[in-house]
Write a structure and sequence with these properties.
CATH superfamily of the largest domain: DHBP synthase
Structural class: alpha/beta
Shape: globular
Bound molecules: threonylcarbamoyladenylate, magnesium ion
CATH class of the largest domain: Alpha Beta
Helix content: 25-40%
Number of helices: 11
Number of strands: 15
Number of domains: 2
CATH topology of the largest domain: DHBP synthase
Length: 320
């Protein structure tokens, strides 16, 4: 188990000497290290057991600092970044040679994000290198939204966990690419498509669901708990006799016939932001119950962060 605390100076020292620190962000916790150091980046991939073809996001404290890492910031990217950074937005930009090949898996774009969480903002301002940070979970599993989640799974892989409490957004950042004429959303996330379109006009949503993705990392089966998880519709076709071992992850109302104590309600008031915030906590809580052998779930209304939630539900229930 790792050291957990709120000591920014200690986090700085660890990072400065090539160590790994789990950092809180408003989306999910990240597994962070010096993005400019090949050895550190290699350590990050190993700790997560992440395939090397899946590139990392680089975190910095401001748009101005981001300019040192990229060749140019196209106008719509500039508009989005000025409006939504710090925040749950990642943009893909042409990288400068200072960004190691390992970070981008050889691609000529780098994913950049300026996170809003106060502790991490402070940390990023005080170090003189950017932080590469994937979500701090073993590859393919649900992302962590508390320090404890990180400790449970990657506690032995990180040197320090900076504890910033519960992640407020609870779902990963939205990734936008500016190659081509229309901006493209490559991952639905904590910034809704509606909010993006409200500022730069219509965008394409191009989220891949395949086992050999072209936006790497968008694997079909992802964000999955270890317990079997199925969509309610699919489940109806193959009823299991013993409902006593069924758990449910539901939007705003419990399901009939299933023990209320085995159901996780994302938001009793139907608040989509609350549902996003609680999604991964709910999946983890059900996954850890030894008296639940199958989790059933269903899509939520496809508006606002509901689209990102549904994307995670689709991937978690995908068979592969
Ligand atoms: O909210 C977040 O984005 C969190 C926090 C820690 O910042 N990070 C996160 O990182 O979710 P990760 O590694 O779990 O997901 C990053 C995604 C992957 O799907 C990866 O393939 C994609 O970003 N990505 C990174 N660089 C890319 C690039 N140059 N082109 C296309 N996709 C890229
Ligand atoms: Mg991840």
């Amino acid at each position: 188990m790792a050291d957990i605390g709120q000591d920014i100076n200690h986090a700085k020292e660890v990072l400065g000497s090539g160590g790994l620190v789990a950092i809180p962000t408003e989306t999910v916790y990240g597994l962070a290290g010096n993005a400019l150091d090949d050895n550190v980046v290699t350590k990050i991939f190993k700790a997560k057991q992440r395939p090397s073809f899946d590139p990392l996001i680089v975190h910095t404290s401001s748009l101005d600092k981001a300019r040192d890492l990229v060749i140019e910031v196209p106008e719509p990217a500039e508009i989005l970044a000025s409006r939504f950074w710090p925040g749950p937005l990642t943009i893909l930009l042409k990288r400068k040679p200072i960004i190691p090949d390992l970070v981008t898996s050889g691609l000529d774009t780098v994913a950049i994000r300026v996170p809003a969480h106060e502790l991490t903002q402070k940390l990023l301002k005080e170090i003189d290198f950017p932080l590469a940070a994937p979500s701090a979970n073993p590859f393919g599993y649900v992302s962590p939204t508390t320090a404890e989640h990180v400790n449970q799974q990657l506690g032995s892989e990180v040197d320090y966990i900076l504890d910033g409490g519960d992640s407020e957004v609870g779902i990963e950042s939205t990734i936008v690419s500016f190659e081509g004429t229309t901006p493209k959303v490559l991952r639905l996330g904590g910034l809704s498509v509606e909010e993006i379109e409200g500022v730069i006009g219509s965008v394409e949503v191009n989220i891949h669901s395949s086992s050999k993705p072209d936006a790497p990392g968008m694997l079909k089966s992802h964000y999955a708990p270890k317990t079997e998880i199925v969509l309610l519709d699919a489940f109806n076709l193959q009823p299991v006799e013993d409902l006593s071992r069924i758990g449910a992850l539901v939007f705003d109302k419990p399901l009939d016939h299933i023990d209320p104590d085995k159901q996780f309600i994302l938001s009793e008031t139907g608040d989509m932001n609350e549902a996003a915030r609680r999604l991964f906590t709910g999946l983890r809580a059900l996954d850890q119950r030894i008296d639940i052998s199958t989790i059933v779930t269903n899509f939520v209304p496809n508006i606002g962060l509901g689209r990102a939630i549904n994307d995670r539900i689709r991937r978690a229930t995908a068979k592969e």
